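pls design
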């Protein structure tokens, strides 16, 4: 314990010196003590009792430099902190566990303290030294590790307990408090810098995960989303599609259908439109069949010079549908849209069978589909009609077969399976 106290005391002196002479001192005299302390901490089990104090002490030193308000020292403080954090950020899982684990705890604690102080109430807001700009622009940082760090910072932002609000308060104050124009310029600038290092898809995926985990602060979630859509037109369009689809899946009249919404999109400028369809192209292997069909049939207004992007996406989606042995039709026999294809198929069959059993006549729309929508008629309508044995369907099926509206092989397979 005495040894760690001595090391920590020396570290405070070294950090003070490093701030005044960063170019010659911080790697030699500051970085090595931190590495040494972290290694010592993880190796010597007899020092376990001091772990919390050690991390707290080291993070306190970082905090002092980050929030230094002395104009003569701020630049040096920023360089010192950025240099040290770059080394911690670069430590990946491949690093020895004796160094990686404690180093990550130190990094997380530094970020948590920074965000906590950034979000705290103050009549005269403090401005942190520009360490983040230097870190994010550092040539010594491995970009993949830097993105992992930015995701961690993003999570810390959105999950901060500072100034927590209820959903009712969030709705009431959303337009007045949680927009980029109403938020602290220092806060929005920092959030923007972090988001700028992440692909739009990663930001959306991470925000989605946080929301699903139900561990977030409404205030900072809305503020982060506001900064994101303000700084990324491409990201805004992607977020818009995902939110709209989520609302439309609830099958509530107030939201309407996803097909109607998607077909009515007006995405501008052209760069945002291209980004949206590039994103949709990447999602093709994962998209539900119904969404693929809607995207193929209900293409939104296309800006000039974007037709090739739509053509590429359409070909990709059609190929995927063909691989899945699906047609491109997204509406049922009666031209009605349903939330799921199965709902539509079952409703179509039930309606035409009920009409036949009542009138002994085949609906005209069925006969028209057999000619003008032959692929849909055979692969969707007949497949649903003949998939199992239903006594109410038997006479209707025999009638269709008698007038040549069910292929001989398909009819025989049905008979062999159920009779």
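designed seq:
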């Amino acid at each position: 314990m005495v040894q760690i106290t001595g090391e920590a005391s020396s570290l405070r002196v070294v950090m003070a010196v490093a701030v005044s002479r960063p170019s010659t001192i911080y790697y030699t005299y500051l970085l090595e003590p931190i590495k040494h302390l972290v290694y010592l901490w993880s190796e010597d089990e007899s020092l376990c009792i001091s772990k919390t104090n050690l991390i707290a002490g080291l993070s306190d030193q970082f905090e002092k430099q980050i929030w230094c308000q002395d104009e003569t020292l701020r630049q040096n403080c920023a360089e010192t902190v950025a240099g040290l954090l770059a080394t911690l950020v670069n430590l990946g899982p491949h690093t020895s566990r004796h160094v990686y684990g404690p180093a990550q705890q130190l990094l997380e604690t530094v970020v948590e303290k920074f965000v906590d102080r950034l979000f705290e109430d103050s009549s005269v807001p403090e401005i942190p030294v520009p360490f983040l700009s230097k870190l994010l622009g550092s040539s010594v940082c491995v970009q993949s590790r830097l993105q992992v760090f930015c995701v961690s910072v993003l999570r810390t932002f959105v999950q901060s307990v500072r100034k927590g609000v209820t959903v009712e308060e969030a709705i009431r104050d959303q337009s007045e408090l949680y927009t980029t124009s109403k938020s602290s310029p220092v806060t929005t600038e920092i959030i923007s810098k972090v988001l700028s290092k992440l692909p739009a898809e990663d930001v959306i995926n991470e925000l989605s995960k946080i929301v699903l985990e139900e561990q977030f602060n409404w205030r900072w979630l809305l503020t982060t989303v506001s900064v994101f859509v303000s700084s990324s037109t491409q990201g805004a369009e992607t977020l818009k599609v995902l939110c709209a689809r989520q609302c439309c899946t609830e099958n509530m009249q107030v939201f309407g259908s996803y097909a109607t919404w998607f077909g009515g999109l007006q995405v501008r400028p052209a760069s945002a439109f291209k980004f949206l369809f590039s994103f949709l192209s990447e999602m093709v292997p994962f998209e539900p069949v119904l969404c693929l069909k809607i995207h193929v049939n209900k293409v939104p207004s296309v800006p000039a010079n974007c037709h090739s992007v739509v053509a590429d996406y359409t070909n990709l989606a059609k190929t995927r549908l063909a691989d899945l042995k699906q047609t491109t039709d997204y509406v049922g026999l009666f031209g009605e849209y349903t939330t799921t294809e199965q709902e539509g198929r079952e409703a179509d069959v039930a309606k035409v069978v009920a009409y036949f059993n009542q009138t002994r006549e085949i609906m005209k729309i069925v006969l028209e589909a057999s000619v003008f929508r032959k692929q849909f008629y055979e692969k969707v309508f007949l497949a649903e009609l003949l998939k199992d044995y239903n006594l109410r369907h038997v006479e209707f099926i025999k009638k269709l077969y008698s007038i040549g509206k069910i292929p001989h092989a398909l009819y025989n397979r049905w008979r062999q399976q159920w009779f």
